[in-house]
Amino acid sequence: LDESTKRQNDIGVPPDGLDKYKDIPIKQLQRDLDRALIELKKYAHVNKKALDQFLQFSDERDKLINRKAEIDEAHRHIVDLIESLDNKRFETIQFTFKQVSLYFTEVFKRLVPEGTAHLVIKTGDNEDYDSEQVSSQSSSQQMSVDDFTGVGIKVSFNGRTNEMRDMQQLSGGQKSLVALALIFAIQKCDPAPFYLFDEIDQALDPQYRNAVAELINELSQKAQFIITTFGPDLLKYGDKFYGITYRNKVSQIRSVTRDEALEFVEDNEGQNQVAQATTTTTQSSSDI
């Protein structure tokens, strides 16, 4: 009895199970056992590691879910950052454009008292917006930086707003004046330490040269202007003068006085006038 009990404990069969089958004949128990073994053979190819794999994959799934949540959170932060940067970029462009446009209008009015001018922002729908319109569009969230395609200029030299013209419609001298007005406007917003101008007064109409010279003299209090010129207007406000000569295929530069510089440009203007008169006479003679 003790031996039977020991084997029973080793097998792990509960006592209630033994009581259930103790009155059943041995042959019947054998047949039941054979049927049970046949049924068990159906599960012979079951992956015995499935439970371990399930637990492993479940753990990996939980890690991936947590990782996805972290990535989604990072994505939201990136989207918010991009939106914030876009807003700051738009505000910076809007502020800079507004300031430059304001100074451009002021400078142009200074150079051309009877004229008017302003900057416009061009968009993909071929519309032009001034600074006030850009502000109103941005406040209503109807415009973004991606809509901008460039900056245009509208000017009128007679002050009539219904006769505003684009740069392509201006003469060479008018284009030069508008370009200078824009440079001076930018200089007021973001000054540079020095500016180098090469004969900026050459294409200017005579009535605007003195106004440009006066404005450069005013701006020279905070920046240095290095200018080459063949006209006397810009020389009136210069602090230092250099004369450049070209002889025997060699260029020479030397410091000169204001009077020497004025004498040089006046002689140059006289030579140009003589050359122009000679050319005109020659053409007339040819026509005859």
Describe, in plain words, how this protein is organized in 3D.
The chain has 288 residues and is an alpha+beta fold. The chain has two domains: 133 residues, 3-Layer(aba) Sandwich (Rossmann fold), CATH 3.40.50.300; 93 residues, P-loop containing nucleotide triphosphate hydrolases (Rossmann fold, 3-Layer(aba) Sandwich), CATH 3.40.50. It has eight helices and seven strands. The strands form three sheets. Strands 2-1-3 form a three-stranded antiparallel β-sheet. A hairpin with a 2-residue loop joins β6 and β7. α4 runs antiparallel to α5 and α4 packs across α6. The C terminus is likely disordered.
Q: What characteristics describe this protein?
A:
288 residues, alpha+beta, Rossmann fold, 3-stranded antiparallel sheet, two-stranded parallel ribbon, rod-shaped
Layout of helices and strands:
Elements: H1 2-11, H2 15-21, H3 26-41, H4 50-111, E1 116-123, E2 128-129, H5 131-139, E3 148-156, H6 172-189, E4 194-198, H7 206-219, E5 224-228, E6 241-247, E7 250-256, H8 258-287
Parallel strand pairs: 4-5
Antiparallel strand pairs: 1-2, 1-3, 6-7
